[in-house]
Design a protein that fits this description.
The protein is of the alpha/beta class. The protein has helices at about 5-30, 45-55, 70-75, 155-170, 200-215; strands at about 35-40, 80-90, 95-100, 105-110, 110-115, 120-125, 135-140, 175-180, 185-190, 195-200, 220-225, 230-234. It is elongated.
């Protein structure tokens, strides 16, 4: 039995290693696989521009030299990004798939405005008067707001209720949120109030409110689901 590799097999192995090394060098150090396109999927226009700015330095680099996980970490620092994945598409495209944060309210302070998520995260400053279809929540002039930070804690129950309104399929009907003590009321565009009571079981309350809305006419002034087992309309 022969245990010592033959000269021929050694040459074949060395040749294969050289070929692999050469291929890696070609991919890593030459312009053959240089990035000329960054394809961004899933991002709305404003966020797409943010991602383009954050990745523009990758154009011209070899795909083989790009660490996808590092790029993902960088993109996660953009406040409006909820999730992201980065993949290579040889020979010259970097594919960035973005899951954007979903804004539920416009936060207003004086002549400034921001978008905020259901969790109360501030994701973008916007021009006053834009995003007209989104409910407004007002804060006092001295309150500090920064993109990437949180809205005042007292407003978070309201943004969470608005996020639940999205889940319940009635967000497009909501004009605003009113808070009285620790109780919440959604005000719909045609004037009907959905009285939620305390900020507990809001998702279930809104599902019930949606069902009640299908049973009442447009003249209904309120739907009270603060006790979800006994909804009241009047």
């Amino acid at each position: 039995m022969r245990f010592v590799p033959s000269g021929r097999s050694l040459l074949v192995t060395v040749g294969a290693l050289i070929a692999i090394g050469l291929a890696y060098w070609v991919a890593y150090a030459t312009p053959v696989f240089a990035v000329d396109t960054i394809e961004i999927d899933g991002a709305p226009p404003a966020l797409q521009r943010d991602v383009e700015r954050a990745t523009r330095d990758l154009v011209g680099r070899s795909l083989a030299s790009i660490d996808a996980s590092e790029v993902e970490v960088t993109l996660h620092t953009i406040p409006a990004v909820a999730g992201v994945s980065v993949d290579r598409a040889f020979p010259s495209t970097l594919v960035v798939r973005v899951a954007p944060e979903r804004p539920v309210a416009v936060i207003r302070r004086g002549t400034s405005a921001w978008l905020a998520t259901g969790a109360g995260k501030v994701i973008r400053e916007i021009a006053v008067g834009t995003e007209k279809g989104m409910p407004r929540l007002w804060i006092r002039r001295g309150a500090t707001i920064r993109v990437g930070g949180q809205i005042p804690a007292g407003l978070v129950p309201a943004t969470r209720a608005l996020a639940e309104a999205h889940a319940a399929g009635i967000a497009s009907r909501v004009k605003g949120v009113r808070t009285t003590g620790d109780e919440l009321t959604l005000v719909l565009r045609h004037g009907t109030e959905i009285r939620l009571g305390r900020a507990a079981d809001v998702g279930m309350k809104l599902v019930i409110a949606r069902r009640v809305l299908t049973l009442v006419d447009g003249g209904t002034s309120y739907i009270d689901v603060s006790v979800p087992q006994r909804p009241v309309a009047g």
